Amino acid sequence: MKILITGGAGFVGSHLADKFIDQGHEITVVDDLSTGRYSNIQHLEGHERFRLIIDTVLNERMMERLIRETDHVYHMASAVGVRLIMEQPVKTIETIFHGTDVILKFCSRYRKRVLIPSTSEVYGKGASVPFKEDDDLLTGSTDKHRWAYACAKTLDEFLALAHYKETRLPVVVVRLFNTVGPRQTGQYGMVVPRFVEAAMKNEPIHVHGDGTQQRCFGHVLDVVEGLAKLLDSPECFGQVINLGNNEEISIKQLADKAIELTGSTSKIQYIPYEEAYGEGFEDMRRRVPSLEKAKNLIGYQPTRSLNDIINDVAGEFKTSSAAA
Ligand SMILES: NC(=O)c1ccc[n+]([C@@H]2O[C@H](COP(=O)([O-])OP(=O)(O)OC[C@H]3O[C@@H](n4cnc5c(N)ncnc54)[C@H](O)[C@@H]3O)[C@@H](O)[C@H]2O)c1
Question: Which of 67, 69, 147, 173 is the most exposed place for a label (fewest CB within 10 A)?
Answer without folding.
Answer: 69
